[in-house]
Amino acid sequence: MTAATAPVVAAAPRFRTGAGRLCLDFLRTLRYRGTLDAIEELPDSAALLAWVVQCGPCGPCDPPDSQPVSDDPAQVRDAHSLREAVYELVTIGHSVGGVASSSFLVRELVNRAAKNPTPIPRVDASGALLWTASDVVSATLSLVARDAIDLVTSSAVNRVRECADESCSALFSDNSRPGNRRWCSMETCGNRAKKSSLRSRSAGH
């Protein structure tokens, strides 16, 4: 992306995290997937860059919260395609055939994204760790693709769950010891379910 007159990063929405894997957090940018209420949280380049800044290692742009970005519809479309390919790989990982039964095009799309250079670590004059990239979007999406490949080619894919809240259905990695986590977030979906259960019990008395 090159600087131009366009939306600024500060205007973009805040994104949900906490799925347990970078690639699963990326999947959550299509909220309420598969329903009539589906919300695209990455509609343009500004939103995509905002997700990268919030969720990736490169951190805020310089100057903070004021970096103008050019609109790059092709890069946004590529990000959407990567997200859907990752979603297919992760969900099919639970099937009988596993990831091997996924389509060649889906695997290659993720593989191509993983080939891109990733953010580079460096230490600054204060001794702090910083991450840089010539293209922070491409570099962060490369991390997403590599994380997805690591996930679906390991036993960790068996820990991926779908949120039990039917209005959410977001995927998350169940890293709890018993492996019986039901909600992607106890603060939102879990609390909503508890309140619904309490109302039902109250109505029954």
UniProtKB/TrEMBL annotation:
Any Pfam family the entry gives: ABATE
Positions of the Zinc finger CGNR domain: 159-201
Listed SUPFAM superfamilies: Jann2411-like (SSF160904)
InterPro entries (UniProt xref): ABATE, ABATE_dom_sf, Znf_CGNR
The protein's name: ABATE domain-containing protein
Native organism: Streptacidiphilus alkalitolerans
